[in-house]
Amino acid sequence: MSNKLLIEQATQRQKIFRQPSIQGLAKFSRLGLQILPLLIVLFVWELASGSWSDHFKFLEAAVLGKPSGIASELIQLVASGDILIHVWVTFQEALGGLAVAIVAGVSLGIILSYSRQSALLTLPYIQILNSIPRIALAPFFIVWFGIGLTSKVILAALTAFFPIFFTTYQGLSSIEQELVDAFQVMGASRLQILRMVILPAVMTWVIAGIRTSLGMALVGAIVAEYVGSTKGLGFLLMAAQGVLNVDRAWAVLVVLAVIGVFLDWSIRRLEAHILRWRTTAREL
Hints:
The structure is a single chain. With 284 residues, this protein is mainly alpha-helical. Helices cover 83% and strands 0% of the residues. The chain has 13 helices and no strands. Helix 11 packs antiparallel against helix 12. The radius of gyration is 25 Å and the shape is flat.
């Protein structure tokens, strides 16, 4: 069989695979395989909780909860509309903190990467601050700034700041000076160097830092709500645990997981759009 014929057959197979129906079927199959382990765990959990027969019961639903109870609590929270109020409060705190962390982290990363003396003076203190567990500062922020929005945003920002700063600083430090010099020799202006060399190189690092910090900002907001608040998912979680309502506590955790997945998906879509020139960004 000639090479030309083999190439034509391979091209034809690629065309068939790229058809929308084939791609949709492959995506559906992959999604099914990803969900299958979760369904198995939920089935075993429900069975072990004695929902259908006491013969298989070896878990105490009052202590560990059960999937049907969690689903029932979720439905009640959604039907009453209470969950939307708490989700909105936590959403504001986490995204507000993340926005502050992005501005502060990227700005400080740029300043220190272009000022070696400032970096020598500042980096040791940043390393010391980074070694302090930020969660332990929550009680201080509650005392200093009250139980309102400010204390939660500050803790979320402090929790999310360091990954964004370090990735920005590392990204700018990794840019090869020879490449910048080459553009300068070709007569490129500072704006052109910024647009064509620095920003494409550093955006990958910045977005990676944002993806890492996203969950941290959410954790910071939840912990601050847990320490002192009257609204938010952290408050709802604490209230459920206070009355030993395990199913409701699990339901709140499920909502938090959904929010985390949604925010991560949003950042990945944004990354794919901003870095659409990069092949790997499309494949994520």
